[in-house]
Write a structure and sequence with these properties.
This is F-box domain-containing protein. By secondary structure, this protein is an alpha/beta fold. The protein is built from 19 helices and 22 strands.
Length: about 575
């Protein structure tokens, strides 16, 4: 059945399931009917730039976004893996692309959710202007602002307007003072869930304004228990509290009796309380005895019976003079699962637990299992004692693995305790030079939704041998290997190369850049470092040596744009292809 034969109502339902960028690329301009459906009858649009090229981003913002600004419901300005917009903003230290969009915020009358990630900003005025524009959005309910390279916590200016619609606010990478944080929250009187960072060791003890709307608080802080008590008393309706506490030498952070007194005094409505902290210990300490003393303070009826809050302590038993990691189970702040014999753990969880009775809680077995937001990072060393896994980690523990970092080959039977990899989005693989790709192929075969693959110590020619490739896999990063012309050509002609859209690698010769751009039919973004040793040694190339950026710009197709950035002490070239 032809698509055009469908009723308008069905087409509009289909449109709501498609990212606005793809929608306009596919249907706008086909005929009058589709244009009218897109511009007049469509109710809401979800604009997600995470898979867009720099050209598509610029084109959509210039041509289409003004046409649908009043129908935009969600706007995602970058993704967690880092790509065009992230790198442009980070390395240029500019929030101009973001400001360009938000400057028209008065036209975005339907925008309810805004997520800006990995945006770099060192300019106080620009950051304050951005906050002001966000607080002007008339229907915004969820606001997630993730900034890097921020100024000191003493440079923030509160917005000029009050937002009565924002209910969820996450600004965890902005370091606030007490004064600035509460000034911002006063400008957000209906906020219910707050995720913020508070670093203010010299905070005064003055009375804080009461914020009755806040029921959930996720706070990263270096505050003392006294200052935390002031915060909790200013938020009398808190029911969920998550604390990531700075590394400390203050034993009060490690004392369950102190926390119990604080909770009873200031958190009368608490239902969920979670924390994570680290503590530096000294070489002369007997660590096991020290850990038992700490955990005993959390083995009271208040924790074990009344609330069933269990606390765990991790440390590396092979290294002295290190840190203890103390946290409620499951961990609220880390998302790494390190499987290694040298890690030791103790907890207040009962012996021989009925693990199925608790959601996402791992019994310590000499490893470190940490869940966060339903996603999990797995990190495997090269050789692991099989006894760590024998009948001790049921598959139920690992239902939603999002990222895996592993070194191959490994003797670990990882399939025995990973129940499924269907949710996995990215793989980070290190291979030895002599290993076959069998284990890598077997791993990829289990990941139907994987879209990103990072490999170390492997050539593009070896990757070309992979035959079963997940359809979403479009982003490849090759590290610790310098690729030559033959390897690049073999990869470009392979199944993986034919569907690759985003590629990052080191090259032996600048001419390989041109070959990849011309031969990889789906390539959208190429990030590369050119070693160019041959150009330095071959006298026949001396006439063409010159500036590499100029050389590339002169020879790249007109559809390509070139930018330069520094990563890992190298100068990388980013080619965006229209």
């Amino acid at each position: 059945m032809p698509l055009e034969s469908l009723a308008n109502e069905l087409l509009l339902d289909i449109f709501e399931c498609i990212n606005a960028i793809d929608l306009f690329r596919a249907f706008y301009g086909l005929n009058t009917r589709f244009n009218e459906l897109l511009l007049v009858h469509a109710r809401t649009y979800h604009v997600d730039f995470q898979l867009a090229s720099q050209h598509d981003f610029n084109h959509f913002c210039r041509v289409y976004l003004p046409l649908i600004s009043r129908q935009v419901a969600t706007l995602h300005l970058s993704d967690d893996d880092g790509e065009f917009l992230i790198n442009q903003i980070r390395h240029a230290d500019s929030i101009e692309p973001v400001m360009k969009i938000l400057s028209n915020c008065d036209q975005m009358s339907s925008l309810t959710r805004l997520k800006i990630t990995y945006c770099s900003c060192r300019n106080t005025d620009k950051f304050s202007d951005l906050i002001h524009h966000v607080w002007l959005l008339p229907k915004l309910t969820h606001c997630h602002l993730d900034f890097t390279a921020m100024l000191s916590p003493y440079s923030f200016r509160q917005p000029l307007r009050t937002s009565k619609t924002i209910e969820y606010l996450s600004m965890k990478t902005v370091k606030f003072t007490f004064k600035d944080l509460f000034a911002l929250l006063l400008c957000t009187p209906n906020v219910r869930h707050v995720h913020a960072t508070l670093f203010d060791r010299h905070a005064s003890s003055e009375t804080l304004p009461i914020l009755p709307s806040i029921s959930k608080l996720n706070l990263s802080t270096d505050s003392s228990l006294h200052h935390l008590n002031n915060i909790f008393q200013a938020m009398p309706n808190l029911s969920h509290v998550t604390l990531e506490l700075a590394e400390t030498s203050d034993r009060k952070y490690l004392n369950g009796h102190s926390w119990q007194a604080l909770i009873l005094a200031s958190l009368s409505k608490i239902r969920v309380w979670r924390f994570f902290t680290t503590y530096s210990f000294h070489e002369e300490m007997i660590i096991e005895d020290h850990v038992e003393q700490i955990l005993d303070t959390f083995r009271t009826p208040f924790y074990l019976d009344e609330h069933r809050w269990f606390v765990r302590c991790d440390w590396n038993r092979q290294i002295t003079g290190q840190r203890l990691f103390l946290y409620t189970m499951p961990s609220c702040c880390r998302d790494i699962y390190v499987v290694h014999p040298s890690f030791q753990s103790k907890s207040t969880y009962p012996e021989n637990p009925n693990v199925s009775s608790l959601d996402h809680i791992c019994y310590p077995i000499g490893s470190d299992l940490l869940l966060r937001n339903g996603n999990l990072h797995l990190v495997f060393p090269n050789r692991i004692e099989y006894l760590l896994f024998r009948n001790q980690i049921p598959c139920v523990f690992l239902p939603k693995i999002g990222h895996v970092t592993i070194r191959l080959p490994t003797e670990t039977p990882i399939w025995s305790f990973i129940s499924t990899l269907t949710c996995l989005r990215s793989l980070n693989i290190s291979l030895s030079y002599k290993t076959s790709l069998g284990q890598l192929q077997a791993l990829i075969n289990q990941t139907p939704r994987c879209h990103s693959l990072t490999v170390n110590n492997v050539s593009p020619e070896q990757l070309a041998q992979l035959d079963r490739i997940p359809a979403p896999l479009h982003r490849i990063s090759i590290k610790d290997y310098c690729s030559n012309a033959v390897e690049c050509s073999v990869f470009a002609a392979s199944p993986l190369g034919r569907q690759c859209k985003v590629l990052s690698l080191d090259l032996t010769d600048r001419r390989n850049v041109l070959n990849l751009v011309n031969e990889m039919i789906q390539l959208r973004t190429l990030t590369c470092f050119c070693e160019d040793m041959k150009w330095r040694l071959d006298p026949t190339l001396i006439q063409e040596r010159g500036n590499l950026a100029t050389w590339l710009q002169d020879r790249l197709p007109a559809t390509c744009s070139l930018s330069i950035m520094s990563m890992e002490m190298k100068k990388y070239f980013r080619i965006s292809i229209q």
